[in-house]
Amino acid sequence: MKKKIGIILLSIVAILIAACGSKQTTPAPETTNAPETVSESASAPKELTAITVAASPTPHAEILYQVVDDMKELGYDLKVQEFSDYVLPNLAVDEGDVMANYFQHEPYLDDFNAERNTHIVSIGKIHYEPFGIYKGTNDSLELSAGDKIAVPNDVTNEARSLNLLEAAGVIKLKDGVGLTATKLDIVENPYNVEIVELEAAQIPRALDSVAVACMNGNYAIEANYKVSDAIYVEEQSSDAAQTYANILCVKEGDENAAWAKDLYNCLKSQKVKDFIDKTYDKSVIAID
After folding, report:
1. Which of 57, 67, 236, 243 has its CA 20 to 30 A from that of 48?
2. Are the C-beta atoms of residues 229 and 139 closer than 8 Å to each other?
3. Alpha-carbon distance 194 to 125, whole Å?
4. DSSP 94-140
5. Residue 3 C-alpha from the chain's centroid
6. What's the pLDDT score for residue 36?
7. Cα–Cα distance, 8 to 229 (Å, whole number)
């Protein structure tokens, strides 16, 4: 009996071995909907070209921040470096520490280049900031003998202040002095006022010690003044709107660079004009 059982088991094992040996492996079907392999170089994000621009905090840096995304779409990484004075931004461009600056008007730039032997050029006009006479200890231009009037101490903005004071009837200048006017060109001073020359950035902090002050628009804005707060302001239809328009500047030789033209065009966009109109209540006016 045991012999028969062993024979049966051996037969079953033989059958199983034969079955396994005859089994064929079917290759996996090719996947037809698998995603295409993308090369590493094609999938990597495009490297952006870094551009650093020096600017006054208000309104220039604020305006530049509006075009960061626009410049990114054009392939640039726009960085803004803020300065609180009018000297270092030009030196930074001339020495190559930054690629451009945005804070000044052309008369100031021309005078700076002449004095410092720098080589900085304008790409174009972006906006205009009406220059105003603001109250200090006086609420009006009813002045008394010995009253002090603060003006910026740089040549071009002092001349601009003196011309504004003449237009307001405070003083009279020599005929024809225009943008070269200094205190020495005052020929009539009926109120016997004292002209106090201060660094432009310091004037808002000196208002308690002067009767009135002539202030650049950007520093007036930083001190929370609007152009409507001014006792007297330049006419927006005057030549000053073009003469003193704020400009985008680069080192000589970069004025035709693609990045410079792209930045200028972004700053001249309708988007920027709308931002200026909505934000600064006519204290900053976009140039068409």
Report:
1. 57
2. no
3. 34
4. HTTSSSEEEEEEHHHHHHHHHHHT--EEEEEEEEE---EEEESS-SS
5. 102
6. 42
7. 114
Question: What is the rounded distance in angstroms from the CA atom of residue 78 to the CA atom of residue 71?
Answer: 7
Q: Which residues sit opposite 80 in a β-bridge?
A: 53
Q: Count the residues in the chain.
A: 288
Single pTM value for the model: 0.77
Beta strands of 155-278 (E only): which ranges? 172-173, 186-188, 194-198, 212-215, 232-233, 246-251
Task: Supply the DSSP string of 137-186, one letter for each residue.
Answer: S-SSS---TT-EEEEESSHHHHHHHHHHHHHTTS-EE-TT-GGG--GGGE
Helix pair angle (106-116, 155-167), 10° resolution = 140
Amino acid at 117: N
Tokens 């037969």 -> residue: 11
Q: How far is the C-alpha of 284 from the C-alpha of 173, rounded, in Å?
A: 28
Q: Is 2 helix (H, G, I), strand (E, B) or coil?
A: helix
Among 220, 224, 223, which Cα is nearest to 233's?
A: 220
Query: Phi and psi (nearest 5°) for 193?
Result: -80, 160
Which amino acid is located at 41 in the chain?
S
pLDDT value for 22: 38
As a whole number of angstroms, the distance between CA 83 and CA 43 comes to: 39
In whole angstroms, give the CA distance from residue 200 to residue 180: 18
Low-confidence ranges of the chain (pLDDT < 70): 1-45, 238
Q: What is the C-alpha radius of gyration for the chain, rounded to an integer number of angstroms? A: 36
Residue 45's pLDDT is what? 60
Phi-psi region of 282 (alpha: psi -120 to 50; beta: other; left: phi over 0): left
Question: Residue 277 corresponds to which tokens in the numbers above?
Answer: 């109109």
